[in-house]
Specification:
Layout: H1 3-11, H2 16-25, E1 31-32, E2 39-45, E3 48-53, E4 59-63, E5 71-72
């Protein structure tokens, strides 16, 4: 699977389980579009994804279905 396929799968996430599997398969190598930092953790709760960045105090939150607008591989 190449980067384009991974990003396409991220666009089509519609469940917490799919996101968890995708995050695991990519060894947490998602990056923020705005900050260019590697994502360290993603926490899913009530349809929202909260994420933190590696070596940074920056945190983000969005709806799962909009996650592709904030993160990429």
């Amino acid at each position: 699977m190449d980067i384009n396929e991974l990003n396409e799968k991220l666009m089509n996430i519609d469940s917490e389980e799919q996101l968890s599997i995708l995050f695991f398969k990519t060894k947490k190598k998602m990056r923020s579009v705005l900050h260019g930092k590697v994502v360290e953790t993603i926490t899913i709760k009530n349809g929202y994804a909260s994420y933190t960045f590696l070596d940074s105090n920056i945190k983000g939150q969005c709806e799962i279905r909009n996650l592709y607008q904030y993160l990429t591989f």
